[in-house]
Design goal:
The protein is an all-alpha fold. It has helices at about 1-30, 35-50, 55, 60-75, 80-95, 100-105, 110-120, 120-135, 135-150, 160-165, 170-210, 210-225, 230-235, 240-255, 260-280, 285-290, 295-315, 320-330, 335-340. It has two domains: about 1-90 and about 245-340, no CATH class; about 100-230, no CATH class. The protein is built from 19 helices and no strands. The model is unreliable at about 1-5 and about 155-160 (pLDDT under 50).
Length: about 350
């Protein structure tokens, strides 16, 4: 009888203590000092960060599992794809109204840097030269350009009315002349097409092996002619729907590309290189390496934390969360035994 009364008292006291502690933490998290409380938590964590190594808090397999889930497996929902389409179209309209120029996105200094680097790539340029010279696909492309260029440009030896008249002619020599003229015209057109196609391909080949000085002059002229042009001049060449489809195509392409074992191995190996490089470094050194400072964490805490906590409280979610954390402690038999001991 006595043990039962003591146990009931202990449970009631534990329940009362839990409710008081829930109320205390809720007040701590929702008052004006809550941000300061969270800042102190971050400061305490960072004080000990120099003594904690990366491999003590996370393993390579854990990081790779996260990459696999969110880079290789996650599918965007239909709602998000619809949003991407909407924002793509609106950005297109916004860009049409902008007065920004190409040089606002790509400065002269950046142009000089990229041009200098490109001119250093001698091996790539020689490979490109060989590709342009030997590739059957390039030959077909040049032939297509030549054919398209000449289409409807060369004069016909006979007009349509002439052909109709010849077709109805009773003289055989007129029929033979027509056949002969068509054959000769086809031969002439084919020779001209072949010559133009070879000329185009030769020009592409020669262009790929221009001297550095010539390439630099050519690139500078192109840049100077276009850098002051408004970006809207390029944007208006496509429609909002084109922009939307472009973004969707990029996503669809990435969905297919990420299923490639080569791409997956490449990304996971990159993660392994990162982990191997930093695993024996302290968290403080890792934060410093990626440019994350204490002030960054503090600022983000102040920026987002108070509003999130207030929203949780307004929706009556904050108190159940705190209760969920504390309740197992006060229901634990060891806790109740300790309380009974001090009654």
């Amino acid at each position: 009888m006595t043990e039962k009364i003591v146990s009931e008292k202990s449970q009631l006291l534990a329940q009362a203590l839990m409710l008081e502690q829930v109320a205390f933490y809720k007040k701590q998290l929702t008052t004006e000092l809550s941000a300061e409380f969270f800042q102190q938590f971050i400061q305490l964590f960072l004080q000990h960060a120099p003594n904690i190594q990366l491999n003590e808090v996370v393993e390579l397999e854990q990081i790779q599992a996260v990459v696999k889930r969110y880079a290789f497996e996650m599918q965007l929902g239909a709602g998000l794809l619809e949003f991407i389409g909407e924002i793509a179209q609106r950005l297109h309209v916004f860009s049409l109204q902008s007065s920004a120029e190409l040089q606002d996105l790509f400065s002269d200094q950046q142009f000089e840097m990229w041009l200098s680097k490109f001119l250093e790539l001698e091996n790539i340029r020689h490979y490109l030269n060989h590709f342009l010279r030997e590739s059957p696909s390039i030959q077909q492309l040049c032939q297509y350009i030549a054919t398209t260029t000449l289409q409807n440009k060369l004069p016909k030896l006979f007009s349509q009315s002439d052909e109709d008249r010849v077709s109805s002619s009773k003289y055989e020599w007129q029929q033979k002349l027509k056949t002969f003229s068509h054959r000769q015209q086809q031969r002439i057109e084919q020779k001209i097409e072949d010559s133009i196609a070879r000329f185009i391909q030769e020009q592409l080949v020669d262009l790929s092996l221009l001297s550095n000085d010539d390439l630099e002059t050519l690139a500078r002229n192109v840049w100077d002619d276009n850098k002051s042009k408004p970006l809207s001049e390029y944007t208006k060449q496509v429609t909002p729907l084109d922009v939307e489809e472009f973004f969707v195509m990029i996503y669809e392409y990435w969905k297919e590309l990420r299923e490639s074992s080569y791409i997956q191995d490449l990304i996971l190996y990159g993660v392994k290189v990162f982990y191997d490089f930093y695993k024996d470094e302290s968290l403080a050194d890792v934060f410093a390496a990626i440019g994350l400072e204490e002030s960054d964490l503090q600022n983000e805490a102040v920026r987002f934390y108070p509003k999130v906590v207030v929203a949780l409280d307004e929706h009556e979610v904050l108190e159940p969360i705190i209760t969920l954390i504390l309740k197992p402690f006060y229901e634990n038999s060891q806790t109740l035994a300790t309380i009974e001991k001090h009654l």
